Amino acid sequence: MTYRILVTSLSFGREDATPVRMLEDAGCEVIRNPAGRPLSDEELAGLVGEVDGIIAGVDWIGPRTLSRGVPRLRIVSRTGVGYDRVDVETATRLGVAVTITPGANSEAVADLAMGLLIAVARQIPEADRTLRDGRWHRYTGRELWRKRLGLVGLGRIGKGVARRAAGGFAMEVLAYDVVWDEPFCRQWGVMRAGSLDEIFETCDFISLHVPETAQTRHLVNEERLRRMKRTAYLVNTARGGLVDEAALARALQEGWIAGAALDVFEKEPPASSPLLGLPNVVVTPHIGAHTVEAVGEMSRMAARNLLALLVEGRVPEGLVNPEALRSGS
């Protein structure tokens, strides 16, 4: 049997042809994203009528796509750990499995989070720009060494940042998470925050590592930004919606905090964001997972998840909605 697979992820197989070969060797016909950019729900709906699976990136997969895809569509295999752009409730009701690739990009994102911490504290991008413009201006930054780092979220990526911060910079790490890994925290000296307020009030650096949900949207709002030290820095490599960008822009312009570094935005690309024009902000275009190693592993894992369900008839790893396998047609 030939399975038709729509690959909308722009990074799938980019660094290594192995994932594409995995699909083709299993008898799959691979259909590439025709637009060369992330697709909207409406755009995807026009492409899924005759496909068995989607390997998706940051496309919006909503009710239109899912309703148009069934009964043939059986799986949406995401390259990444987030699934906030997939309507999981509708997918489950229609019997469409949704999978992610947990752990594949954790070290890459943790690396970037630490890089952004250093870049914003030492004003590296601004120093680079001024020197290239012919100016010899020596910036006075702040050290990470032995400072207090607050982690909002202590999953795989948060733990990666904690290891780097505690082990490499002797930082005092304070973390907040509803799920607490006591053995890990004892090993790395991570302290448990009693509340989010404790993180925002006491830390010199704060790094976000939680998913975007109805409960976490605008978790960083005006109230919490005002609680931060005037010398503190905020880093977000998780999801743009965690931060109220209008409030953050005010905080940076008016000196409530010292700086921010962002890899993610409420709207991507953030063409009209006031944050882009501020000198105390470091920005990157959602590249946290984009290393050769991470892109390769995410692609391979996404392919394995899809083939497990369609070809091998077994439950794939990283399955978000096991109920879909019981309710599907």
From TrEMBL:
Q: Which residues form the D-isomer specific 2-hydroxyacid dehydrogenase NAD-binding domain?
A: 114-288
> Which domain of life, per UniProt?
Bacteria
Q: Name the SUPFAM superfamilies for this protein.
A: Formate/glycerate dehydrogenase catalytic domain-like, NAD(P)-binding Rossmann-fold domains
Q: Read off the CDD domains from this record.
A: PGDH_like_2
InterPro entries reported in the protein's UniProt record: D-2-hydroxyacid_DH (IPR050857), D-isomer_2_OHA_DH_cat_dom (IPR006139), D-isomer_DH_CS (IPR029753), D-isomer_DH_NAD-bd (IPR006140), NAD(P)-bd_dom_sf (IPR036291)
Q: Which residues form the D-isomer specific 2-hydroxyacid dehydrogenase catalytic domain?
A: 20-316
Q: Which Pfam families match?
A: 2-Hacid_dh (PF00389), 2-Hacid_dh_C (PF02826)
Keywords linked to the UniProt accession: NAD, Oxidoreductase
UniProt family annotation? Belongs to the D-isomer specific 2-hydroxyacid dehydrogenase family.
Q: What is this protein called?
A: Phosphoglycerate dehydrogenase
Query: What is the organism of origin for this protein?
Result: Carboxydichorda subterranea
